[in-house]
Structures are given as C-alpha cells and as structure tokens.
Amino acid sequence: MSKEISEQPDNCVPEADTDSIGPTWPPKESSFNRIKGIDTRGVITDTRRLSEILTVLQDLRQACLKDEKLDRASVRILIENNLLLKSSDTLQGFGEAVIPLSGSQDELQETSLLYLGFNCPKRQPNPEELRQSITNVQHAMRRDTASFKQIRARTLEQGYQLGISDFGERVNDEQVWSEMTSLYKRFGWNSEDVLDILRKENNILAVASLNGQIVSAGIAETVLLTFEDGVQLRMAEITEAATREEHQGRGLYTAVASELMFELYKKSAEKQLLDGQIDLVFGECNGNAPGVLKAVRSLGRSFSHEYSLTMGIERVVPGFLPQHVPIAGAKRSTPYNDLFPAYINRQSLAKFIEENR
Predict the structure, then answer these.
(1) pLDDT tier, 29 (very low <50, low <70, confident <90, very high otherwise)
(2) For the CA atoms of the chain, what is the radius of gyration?
(3) What distance in Å separates the CA atoms of residue 300 and residue 281, rounded to the nearest whole number?
(4) pTM, to two decimals
(5) How would residue 225 be classed by pLDDT, with cut points 50, 70 and 90?
(6) Of 8, 40, 173, 350, whose CB neighbour count within 10 A is largest?
(7) What is the mean pLDDT of residues 334-351?
(8) Do 236 and 280 contact (CB within 8 A), yes or no?
(9) CA dist 129 to 124, 217, 222, 303, 331, Å?
(10) Is residue 193 part of a domain?
(11) Between 127-141 and 304-311, two packed helices, what is the crossing angle to 10 degrees?
C-alpha cells in the first residue's frame, strides 16, 4: 500500500511531471505508467471514426493487460456534440469526461473535447474515496463566482504582491530559481524539474511574494494544437500550484490562479496568446482537495462532472479521470488521485474579468 500524504489544500502539484498536456497522436507512453495522446487528425463527425478510436483503446487495453508497467491509457478527441450524444452508449467503459467548446471560436461551437481512457484492474479508485470526491465536487458546484477585483484586493491588503514572472527573469535570475526550487522541493521536485518548467517559453508563471520572496506560485501551460482538418485549438492548463506551508489558508491559491487567468485574458484580447486568442482554460482538479475545488469554482470555472449531469450522460461519461496522477499534498490510500476537469471558455473568461475588474 502506498504511503498516505497529508492534505495541503493550497497545493496541487503532480509529483515531478513537468509536461501536463502531453503527446498528440498516436498515443505514446507517458509519465506515471500511462499511455497518453490527443487525436489531432480532426474533429470526429461520424460513427466510423469514433469506432476506430474505440478500437484503438480496446487494443491498448489488451496490450496493457500484458504489460507489467503500463496500467492506464488517457486520450482526448474533438467530437461533434450531436455525435457524442447519439453515440454515448458506445462509450461505456471508455468515457471519462467532456469539456464543451461552445463559447470559444465559431468553428467549434458545436464541438467538445472528450476524454476517453481505461485503467487496468490493479489501478482502480478506492470506492469510498471516489464517492467523497464526487461529493466534494458537487458541494463546490453550489459556490458562486467571486469578484476578480475583490480576490486581488484581499491579497494585496495582507501585504502580498502579485505578478507575472516574465520569461527572461525566470530563466536568468538565480534568486527565482532558488525560491521556486525551495517552494516545490517538498513535493519531490528537484532543481532540474523546476528549471525544466521555467524554461518552457509557452508556460506562464504567476507568483505571490512577501517582502520580495516568492511564497506561492502557479503555472499555466499553453499549447496550440493544429489539426489536420485545419482547426486550431489554443488551450491553457492551470497546474503546478504551490504555497509555502506558513502562508496557506490566506487565499493565495485563488489569487495566483486569478492572476494567471487575467494574464491569459490580456494576451488573448491582444491576440498575442500563441499568435491568437485562447479557446479554453482548464485544470484537472484533485477531488480530494475541497479547498481547491471551491477556489476553482469561485474563479468561474465549470466542472465536467456538472456538464455530464446536465446532459444526462454521467453513466457513461462521469466527469472524472480515475487514478490519473499522484497529487502531492493530498491524503489518499491509493497510489494516484482521481481528477475532475474544470474549465472556462474564451467568452466566459472575458466576462469573469471584465465584469469584476
């Protein structure tokens, strides 16, 4: 049995995984004994192509059953909404979560990002912990969106400074390296892990500082996916958030995440986010961290679990990623955590920032 890790609600740090979005197509072996991939061949609009994807997953499952190491697959596809609803029963055993892309670009108004996957028998959730995680998410779903202006003001009133660390500073300033390494080291990250994520030019780093020292940080990993049918999707995943223990419980997780969202909004409004506008901001949230879930909701993000309930497909697409990665700081009895995607689209991001500034 794996060791239990004490809960730290101001942190959501995968254990030394510095590339969250992962490979495209075909699926490849990835971190934490997984096979991952995003199908970039184009939006799936017919049952033939969907059946082809499901066959790939069936073959991967057979291969994983014979493999001593690999025990999970996770793939993402773009799918037409009508096809998703019409074919939802065929996803039984593979459907995990769905993120609607309405509110992004015109070409994707009737399209969703669908997570498909499976776990081998040795990598299954603890049923009691999973039920509690679902309860945590459903409680968070009732929370109202907060005011961006008030989030920022509350943090500044406590004496903290908020800002974005520009690329030149974070790759050349040894003090930033040192403080970030110190912040993340208790999660098993070493200095090379930290430097790797700082050196990725498409990553955005937001920090909260006190007396000139970084005490909380969060990262948005941005990516431009170009599909073979000409569709382009600009995504940002908010991940790797950490707060020094003595500064937890002061709203810094929420403040840093809101700073990232504001920076994404600004770059998008100026069409400077990967030379264009953001389509989707999301994160894969630890269901066993109620504080993180509430913060995510207060920042205007919706849960995939909620969307599945609304669309009546929760039986086949429940809205979570079972035993996906280990999140340092969250108490658990299993080797990995069950994650719940939460998202905000371009239009909703602009509304959150503009109405609450």
Answers:
(1) very high
(2) 19
(3) 11
(4) 0.92
(5) very high
(6) 8
(7) 96
(8) yes
(9) 11, 28, 31, 18, 10
(10) yes
(11) 80
The residues, any chain, with a CB within 8 Å of residue 250's CB and separated by 6 or more, are 155, 158, 160
Q: What CATH number has the domain bearing residue 319?
A: 3.40.630.30
Interstrand relation of 337-345 and 321-325 (parallel, antiparallel or unpaired):
antiparallel
Do the domain assignments include residue 29?
yes
4 inside domain? no
Q: Is residue 7 part of a domain?
A: no
Rounded alpha-carbon distances, angstroms, from residue 298 to 73, 161, 187, 255, 278:
31, 21, 26, 11, 20
- Helix 290-298 to helix 127-141 angle (10° resolution) is 30
Q: What's the confidence (pLDDT) of residue 21?
A: 67
Confirm if 22 and 16 have CB atoms less than 8 A apart.
no
C-alpha distances in Å from residue 257, one per residue of 13, 83, 213: 14, 34, 18
Q: Could you tell me which of 138, 16, 120, 125 has the C-alpha nearest to residue 74?
A: 120
Identify the domain containing residue 261 by its residue range. 13-355
Q: What is the domain count for the chain? A: 1
Is residue 120's pLDDT more than 80?
yes
CA distance 193 to 247: 23
